[in-house]
Amino acid sequence: MTSDKKPLAVFDLDGTLADTAHRQRFLERKPRDWDGFFGAAPDDPPLPEGVALARESAEECEVVYLTGRPERSRADTVAWLAAQGLPAGRLHMRRDDDRRPARRTKLEILRRMARGRTVRMLVDDDELVCDEAERTGFTVVRARWASTSTALKDAQEREGRT
To answer: Residues of 18-36 as b/e, b for ≥16 C-beta within 10 angstroms?
Structure first.
């Protein structure tokens, strides 16, 4: 089966493949230190459960990455994915000036992907993104294998930053 005919397995990064615990402290400050938060991303340890699922999914699916990280962190993100030995795949990132909630930005991209391809599953740790994706008819795997701070959850929904 050629890759353009395979179904898509869509993976979030932060809290799904990448352990952000060491950098959540940047979001507990007032004001939040977004440059510090994203600047520390290259040091994220991988989350074994998410990495294993991505590798396993690559056997039957084309793996695609969908993150709320800003476009300005693309080079660091691409390097991190490669360093973890994750499957090669397209990387969809948030525009640097986009502050909409992740549940809106990610669903917009998922719907666009689904117009031309079957989306087998979305793997994400953000409960609001997962709820919205399920309501829209997507199959969701809830990544509950990492701990996220209240500050990060608030930032995802209210500030549209990750």
So the answer is: bbbbebbebbeeeebbeee
Compute the C-alpha angle 128/133/135, nearest 5°.
Answer: 95
Task: Tell me which residue of 81, 79, 75 sits closest to 63, measured CA to CA.
Answer: 81
Q: How many CB atoms lie within 10 A of CB 3?
A: 10
Identity of the residue numbered 146: A
Q: Helix, strand or coil for residue 56?
A: helix
60 token code pair: 């039957």
**Tens of pLDDT along 81-104?**
999 999 999 999 998 888 888 888
Helix (H, G, I), strand (E, B) or coil at 51: helix
pTM of the predicted structure, to 2 decimals: 0.88
Residue 73, amino acid: S
